[in-house]
What we know:
alpha/beta
Amino acid sequence: MSAAFDPIIGRYLRLDIGGEPHRLYVEEAGQGIPLLCLHTAGADGRQYRGLMLDENVTKNFRVIAFDMPWHGKSSPPEGYQDREYKLSTADYVGQILAVCDALELDRPVVLGCSIGGRIVLQLAADHPDRFRWLIGAQGAAWQAPWYDTDWLNRPDVHGGEVCAALISGLVAPGGPPADRHETLWHYMQGGPGIFKGDLWFYRVDGDLRDTIKRIDTKRCPLTLMAGVYDFSCRPEDMQATADAIPGCEAIWMEGLGHFPMSENYERFAEYLRPVLGKIAG
Length: 281
């Protein structure tokens, strides 16, 4: 194997989020319509590298993925040691809009998964005119928690291994073994309490069952997708949310779990490329 660089550029972006200075790590590839990608709870933008290497996508889209504050290569803000990390709906929306403004993205497409798949519903309700299309993978307005977050930040257990164990059953069987294990590896590397803090949005603050009543898909098209293997956001949960939003497209994805873009990108691309084709067209 000869040495070669992937066609992905990684840089640090300095910006203010919620009145605090931040230094976010951002990767991008391709050119054309901006496609902003939101990673799952406790992980980072590496989940979208399969998408960034897909020439069928990057020939028409500028694919962008950033590590949320406290995640991946994006450090927490100054003074983090004196606070507990908790992701709120308002904070999540604020950082997405701040990144869009800092990068001067003109009505980008947003693709989010899990917590990212849910927050696109809030974006659709409150900021439809800022986006060209919104895509939520493994996202629904609400699911009852099935996990105990107390185990995610304890001194007597390894938090990274607990995170990976917790989500291991959400990865569908049959995908490339290397990709499945890399997905788990992402979860082993999160900071203490970060996965738990993300899930505060997912299990407490992010109940959007009333919010989705305000979504108008005529102002911004909305597509929801769910892997049939996922028991965290079941396809039935996604479908119920889509059915409550007139004009919302719903896609059931065979052979995929909760992390479709990283656990088996080629299978995910079979469902995603037609959606992006409609947008590019």
